[in-house]
């Protein structure tokens, strides 16, 4: 309407004048209409006008036909160009869209792989809330100390000298060579077992050798890890130990004379009579035998008490780490504790002359000591794959672990094909599954360890890496390892020597204020817990979850209240901390509370 008013004002009072340029139809109709109302219609005038008008229009068209054609051509070109540009941009946008979709899918896939793997979201949320409340109330955990006073009644005494036969070495039956297999802790058990066997057979022990393993890939030998002279001196009253065979036996082909003894020749957990029947005749005939790939081939019971005591003396007194390991181990422990002072007899036994000065410096007193908990989280891919369990990773996890089994455990795969399958759920109910980082964190939270607790993580690379550990660090962020505490230059001498690196873990775990294990069958966990029992003086608590009981508790994760979860986990842990004398057939390295190893005060 506004536009209409403007145009009227520009052309005068007649609103229709502006429309006359459109042709003569409107005009003729208007004249005819006016004639009906009294105006005289003169057709000859109108005809003359119309002819003139049409003629002028034709002249105008002929005059501007080229301009009109050019204009039409230009408009056609613009239309075509516009169509081409629209088509081009649509194609480009489609390609970009496809690229974006692919990128989004890739990002989603990466995010899925890097996203935290969680099995117990509800319990993790409850644990997080509980830790915040405890931190606000400043409630310390009760599990920094042994819960039973009887633990301090047992004292180390396997190094006491016994009356021996002075002529024993003169009637020596021959020489024992041993090549121990496995990693650091398996080799340690093998050494102490063969010491007992040498005593049993009245033989001279040649300093043990370590087999190179394709699994451990560590060329270290006895003298790279343990102090040779110290070992020989401590054991000399019971077992004669030499560095090498006499010259007349060095060139003997031990295999050809039938003195090579492998695991096939001795049953697992062999008894003394098995050695007397199988090994002693060879020793007497050939003067030498070689235990190849020796390990867990001597049972714990029945065994004479003198041999049990020798095992303890070897493990707890004779095997000292070399100064190189002690020095870096001392540095490692000091950096965890942030306090330059010795803590216990465990420090003295494991760190030797590198035990920190007992007199703390002034700035250390002001800063205060820092307790720490050591955790052996046995969740490496070999352990996870061999367990046949599932850990919340879905199809990707199942395919990955199956591929690992086929490559590294072909015998297990073949055995599974010919046996009745057991579901992963059943394995978990039976307590056969290694604890995940998430489950370990829930146990520590239930025991009341505060969020700020310093935790030393021992062991190899955790299966699943950061995504698997995220549930743990969400509750306990102060997680450290030897790799994060030591400088690259300090770690460099140990690189490519897995057994020497494991020795650092052994020291950090054994000297910790609290040691928590997730798999009691682990050799490291067994030896560390035994060391803490032997030298801890009742002040070195160890936490041993019962995996079967814990699985039953966690099966109620969708309904159980946090207070009930805490109560049941604490009862489980306290049951494992009861002071018990070593049972028949139990490892003397793990449970040294027995008359052959320790003495009980009244």
Q: Which helices and strands appear, and what pairs or packs with what?
A:
Blueprint: H1 2-11, H2 25-35, H3 43-114, H4 121-137, E1 154-156, E2 175-180, H5 184-200, E3 204-206, E4 209-210, H6 222-225, H7 228-235, E5 241-242, H8 247-250, E6 260-261, H9 272-278, H10 280-286, E7 288-294, H11 305-318, H12 323-337, H13 345-351, H14 362-367, E8 372-376, H15 381-387, H16 394-408, H17 410-417, H18 424-429, H19 437-446, E9 454-458, H20 465-475, E10 479-480, H21 482-485, H22 488-491, H23 498-510, E11 514-517, H24 523-535, E12 542-543, H25 547-554, H26 562-576, E13 598-600
Helix pairs in contact: 4-19, 5-11, 7-11, 12-23, 15-16, 19-20, 25-26
Write up what this structure looks like:
- The protein has 26 helices and 13 strands.
- With 602 residues, it is α/β, with parallel strands linked by helices.
- What's the mean pLDDT score? 83
Number of helices: 26
Strand percent estimate: 5-15%
Oligomer: single chain
Please state the CA-atom Rg, rounded to the nearest Å.
Answer: 44 Å
Helix content: 40-55%
Unreliable stretches (pLDDT < 50, length at least 5) are 1-54, 97-102, 104-113, 362-368
Query: What characteristic shape results from the CA principal axes?
Result: globular
Class inferred from helices and paired strands: alpha/beta
Which sheet architecture does the biggest sheet show?
6 strands, parallel
Distance between the termini: 115 Å
Strand element count? 13
């Amino acid at each position: 309407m506004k536009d209409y008013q403007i145009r009227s004002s520009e052309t005068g009072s007649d609103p229709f004048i502006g429309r006359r340029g459109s042709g003569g139809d409107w005009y003729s109709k208007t004249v005819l209409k006016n004639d009906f109302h009294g105006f005289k219609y003169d057709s000859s005038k109108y005809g003359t006008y119309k002819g003139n008008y049409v003629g002028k229009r034709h002249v105008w068209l002929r005059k501007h036909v080229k301009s009109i054609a050019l204009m039409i051509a230009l408009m056609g070109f613009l239309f075509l160009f516009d169509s081409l540009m629209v088509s081009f941009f649509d194609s480009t946008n489609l390609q970009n869209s496809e690229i974006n979709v692919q990128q989004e899918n890739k990002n989603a896939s990466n995010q899925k792989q890097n996203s935290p793997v969680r099995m117990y979201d509800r319990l993790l949320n409850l644990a997080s809330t509980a830790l915040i409340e405890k931190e606000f109330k400043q409630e310390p955990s009760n599990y920094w100390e042994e819960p039973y006073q009887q633990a301090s009644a047992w004292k180390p005494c396997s190094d006491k000298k016994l009356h021996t036969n002075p002529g024993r070495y003169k009637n020596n039956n021959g020489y024992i060579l041993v090549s121990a297999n496995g990693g650091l802790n398996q080799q340690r058990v093998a050494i102490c077992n063969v010491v007992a066997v040498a005593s049993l057979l009245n033989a001279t022990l040649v300093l043990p050798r370590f087999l190179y393993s394709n699994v451990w890939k560590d060329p270290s030998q006895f003298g790279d890890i343990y102090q040779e002279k110290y070992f020989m001196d401590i054991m000399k009253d019971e077992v004669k130990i030499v560095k090498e065979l006499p010259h007349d036996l060095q060139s003997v082909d031990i295999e050809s004379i039938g003195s090579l003894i492998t695991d096939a020749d001795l049953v697992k957990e062999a008894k003394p009579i098995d050695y007397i029947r199988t090994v002693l005749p060879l020793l007497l005939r050939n003067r030498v035998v070689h235990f190849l790939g020796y390990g867990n081939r001597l049972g714990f019971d029945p065994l004479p008490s003198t041999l049990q005591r020798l095992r303890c003396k070897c493990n707890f007194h004779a095997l000292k780490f070399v100064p190189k390991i002690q020095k870096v181990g001392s540095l490692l422990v000091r950096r965890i504790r942030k306090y330059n002072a010795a803590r216990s007899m465990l420090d003295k036994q494991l760190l030797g002359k590198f035990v920190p000065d007992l007199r703390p410096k002034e700035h250390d007193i002001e800063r205060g000591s820092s307790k720490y908990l050591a955790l052996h989280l046995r969740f490496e891919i070999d352990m996870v794959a061999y367990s046949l369990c599932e850990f919340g990773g879905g199809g990707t996890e199942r395919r990955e672990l199956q591929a690992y089994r086929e490559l590294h455990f072909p015998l297990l795969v073949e055995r599974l094909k010919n046996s009745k399958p057991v579901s992963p759920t059943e394995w978990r109910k039976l307590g056969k599954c290694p604890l995940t980082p998430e489950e370990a964190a829930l146990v520590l939270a239930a025991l009341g360890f505060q969020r700020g607790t310093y935790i030393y993580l021992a062991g190899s690379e955790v299966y699943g890496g950061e995504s698997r550990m995220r549930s743990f660090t969400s509750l306990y962020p102060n997680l450290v390892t030897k790799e994060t505490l030591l400088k690259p230059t300090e770690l460099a001498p140990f690189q490519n020597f897995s057994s020497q690196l494991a020795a650092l873990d052994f020291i950090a775990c054994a000297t910790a204020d609290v040691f928590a294990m997730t798999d009691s069958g682990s050799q490291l966990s067994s030896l560390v817990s035994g060391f803490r029992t032997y030298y801890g003086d009742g002040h070195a608590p160890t936490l041993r979850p019962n995996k079967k009981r814990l699985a039953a508790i966690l099966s109620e994760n969708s309904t159980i209240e946090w207070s009930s979860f805490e109560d049941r986990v604490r009862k489980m842990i306290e049951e494992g901390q009861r002071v018990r004398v070593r049972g028949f057939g139990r490892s003397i390295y793990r449970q040294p509370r027995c008359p052959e190893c320790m003495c009980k005060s009244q």
